[in-house]
Amino acid sequence: MFSRIRKPAIEVSVIIPAFNAAACICACLDALSAQKTDREFEVIVVDDASTDDLSFITAKYADNLRLKLLRLQINSGPGAARNAGAAEAAGNILVFTDADCVPAPDWLEKILASMVDPDVTGVKGVYQTFQNDLWARLAQLEFEERYEKLASHGEIDFIDTYSGAYRKAAFMAAGGFNPELRQNEDVDLAFRIKETGARFLFAPEAKVAHTHREGWLAYASLKYWRGYWRMRIYRQHLQKAGNDTYTPWTLKAQLALLMLFPVTLFSKQLRFLWKAGWLGTCIPLARLALPERPSLAIMTPLFCLIRGVALLAGMTTGLAAWRQKSD
After folding, report:
1. What order of strands is seen across the sheet that includes strand 41-47?
2. pLDDT for 70-101, tens place per residue?
3. What pTM was estimated for this model as a whole?
4. What confidence tens digit (pLDDT) does each residue in 272-304 have?
5. How far apart are CA 120 and CA 129, in angstroms?
6. How far is CA 28 from the centre of its chain?
7. 150-170: buried (b, 16+ CB within 10 Å) or exposed (e) per residue?
8. Do the beta carbons of residue 149 and residue 252 sit within 8 Å?
């Protein structure tokens, strides 16, 4: 008699929340099928009550991936979807990406390399994009400026979920993502786990390709809602307001300058100083943009202005909303 050959135990669970993602998720799963790694991993796709049908992926990837498809009955947001995936995960390391991301062939290996050290609780990877749209390229350069800041720290305090990993034990002990947060839930979780003394590392080689929003209006809308939800995060983590390893000094300075702008209406000299200060804060981003495309460097002051105004508008609205709830 022949004994049944057992599959090796799963070490890693890759969790992907999906909402109306039928058009993009195959690119993500194809990339996961092509990972250059000897690690045993599973992929858990959590359908967040989509109106499209993802059931086809079970058969499509049956021969290439250890794939589980879960479906939530009520649309609950990405945090709740990731929590559902984590609850079903067999691996002791949880790796997160999004349905609209395409991991590089060595992504999994690169993001897990730092976790060979048992003292490391979490790891953060990076975005890359192959778009030509002006605003998408500027958005990528914004990430690159943030990545420079992260790389300057021996340890970081922020892990986002387009390319990130946690030890499952730490994730579960923290209670996972706050399902009430529809954005910035990854910021909140990272801050909570970091408060326990956890060690996070930055892995710039762990890359996923992403299609950023195109056009200034779509970009401004994204930043508005980021600002709105960030105010709720700061209510819970006030010590992190303006004091994290992810936000560059240039953005902090630009937000301060925008708040001071009304004062310049009373003096030409103040307006001149304000403009000089604004252009000075744009230099680091322009420095990154210039080797890629001179037109990008020229656009950075306008890009930063739209970003700052959108963020401040969202932050103001968010602060008012959370104050009203607390009253």
Report:
1. 66-71, 41-47, 12-18, 93-96, 164-167, 120-128, 199-210, 101-103
2. 999 999 999 999 999 999 999 999 999 999 99
3. 0.92
4. 999 999 999 999 999 999 999 999 999 999 999
5. 28
6. 16
7. beeeeebbbbbbbbbbbbbee
8. no
Write out the H or E segment, with its range, that includes residue 44. strand 41-47
State the average pLDDT over residues 237-258. Answer: 89
Angle at 52 between CA 48 and CA 55, to 5 degrees: 80
What structural domains and CATH numbers belong to the chain?
A: 12-214 (3.90.550.10), 215-327 (no CATH)
212, amino acid identity: H
Query: Which pLDDT score, from 0 to 100, does residue 4 have?
Result: 52
User: How many Cβ atoms are within 10 Å of 186's Cβ, its own excluded?
Assistant: 22
pLDDT over 80 at 2, yes or no:
no
Say which residues have a Cβ less than 8 Å from residue 16's Cβ, sequence separation at least 6.
Answer: 25, 28, 43, 44, 45, 46, 85, 96, 97, 98, 99
Q: How far is CA 162 from CA 10, 99, 210, in A?
A: 22, 9, 9
What's the CA gap between 283 and 95, in Å, rounded? Answer: 35
The DSSP bridge partners found for residue 44 are 15, 68
Q: What is the pLDDT of residue 284?
A: 96
Asked whether 33 and 61 are in contact (CB, 8 A), the reply is yes
Distance CA 202, CA 197 (A): 16
